[in-house]
Known about the structure:
alpha/beta; seven-stranded parallel β-sheet; 15% strand; AKR; oxidoreductase activity
Amino acid sequence: xxxxxxxxxxxxxxxxxxxxxxxxxxNINYGGDAxxxxxxxxxxxAIDLGITFFDTAEIYGPFQNEELVGEAIRGxxxxxxxxxxxxxxxxxxxxxxxxxxPANIRRACEGSLKRLGIDTIxxxxxxxxxxxxxxxxxxxxxxxxxxxxxxxxxxxxxxxAQTIRRAHAVHPITALQxxxxxxxxxxxxxxxxxxxxxxxxxxPYSPLGRGFLTGQIKSxxxxxxxxxxxNDPRYSEENFGANLAIVDAIRAVAERxxxxxxxxxxxxxxxxxxxxxxxxxxxxxxTLEDSAKAAEVELSASDLDDLDxxxxxxxxxxxxxxxQGMRMVRL
Length: 331
């Protein structure tokens, strides 16, 4: 495994792991449930492969994904970078809205520490910007957790350009996590340049288009009835066929290189800058092992040109979220 440095000198593996799909019977289902044993075994295999960067969140499950990660890293904590997120209000296990008030941040942090079984969260993200709380107030509360030793580094997720700048002025931001992939390039014009200017690492989530870019999903019929992606506009009946052209473009390069489509999609992201660290979501060891190999794939200038020409910004048909989800990004 190769390694990279996010902002503020935080060293991580060049490929991280999004643990969200490992939820069993939770609120977000991708391709059927994973068992607890399967998720733990996958994390253990990732550690064996040299992966050090693991991403979870209070909202996944909710709560149970952090518990799974906590079980998996018990006795293996050293050298790992554990990232989690806050930013929502709950009534029991029901999510009732965003909340980045200082009181909710502290509640969330204490809960995450307990579920993860750790003393310090390595990278703590605001999951979504709360339009009702000034970002300066939110980051100020996050900075207090750093002073107390409960958090090492601060991050934002899906924040807009000016929010990033204002947040960084209060306390250095180590990483921004946002959706970025060959079919979602909206961060390239403004967000990536600001991260580079301020020395903030960039962590693409859904780097494989929620599995679409792997070429393994040939039609909507391949998705279970309760699969979250059936609500994804890019997986809709009207957009699915058109978006297969993106998969064909990736396949052309993958066949030339003799690697998987997933490895090409991830290697393309890694090639976008030394501070870019994708976190593909996995739950099975076979998928993990395939994605991990992307760190070794070298794309030539010709490969990159071919992909850029075939899949320019805006190539994907349909928005990346439904209307409610789109109202929560780039704030």
